[in-house]
Structures are given as C-alpha cells and as structure tokens.
Amino acid sequence: MRLIFGIFPLLVIPVVLYNLMAMAFGGPVQGVDASGQLLQAQAAPMANLLNERFLGLPMISGVEWVLSKGDAIVLLAVIFLFLEILKSTSTGTATIVNHGISLLIFILCLVQFLLMPNFATSTFFILTAMTLLDVLAGVIVTIVSARRDFGVAGDV
Q1: What is the value of pTM for the model shown?
Q2: I need a labelling partner for 81 at 20 to 30 A (CA). Which of 39, 52, 88, 134 fits?
Q3: Which of UniProt's keywords are assigned here (predicted)?
C-alpha cells in the first residue's frame, strides 16, 4: 500500500474531479439564438458551474463567507501539492516514477487547457500550474536531498 501511495501523484485527484465535472456538466460551446444564427460562447461552458456556491458560513462580522466549487477544487489541490512536496523528499525508485507520472499529468493538463473549451478556465489554469510546480519542486527537492545523502555517505 505504501508503494502505491509513493508512486501515485495526489494531484491527479483534483484533475480527475475537474475532468468528471467538465464531461458531466459542461455545456456546449456553440448555441443557436432565436433567429437561428450560430453563436460561439465567449467563456468556457464550465465557468458558471465553477462559480456556483459550494459552501457558505456565517462570519462573526455579520457577512457570509462563500466558497465556490472552483475554489474548493483549488483548495484541495493546494493540500495535495503540499503532500506531494513532502513525498518528494525521499530518494527511492517510487519517487522517480512519481515524478514521471506527474510530468505526464502536467502535459495532459496543458493539452486540455489549450485545446478543450471546458478547460479554458482560471481554475483549471491554476491546477495546470500546480502540476508544473509539482514536477519542478519534486525533481529539485529530490536532487537536493539525494546530493545531501551522497555528500554524507561519501564524506564530501
């Protein structure tokens, strides 16, 4: 179980969640108006869904704090990014495989962001940036910790 946890990049969870939402609830890019003319959407069809209320809590100040669905996905991704950086401090084979899979997830996210209309949102752009940070930070942290291990063992 620990090996699977070490190989499995946690940022795939919010990306898959966004993909499921985009496939199930994303609207069409084109529509027809009353006169029969074809209209092209100016914003991603997912934008309205991501801006919907997910959670609301009354504050002591008297206002209500509202968390949207897009914000909740980003918050989940931030938590997983933190855990991914913690996992990257090890220098085992599972960590290297994790970085490779994370790179594939970043490439997939980048392609989806550039080519698919439901993925052209700020929420998905932030997820894509987080997958890039996961790859870069993971590789850098692994190299630095491996260099330290080598320096201690090699008495350098």
Answers
A1: 0.81
A2: 52
A3: Membrane, Transmembrane, Transmembrane helix
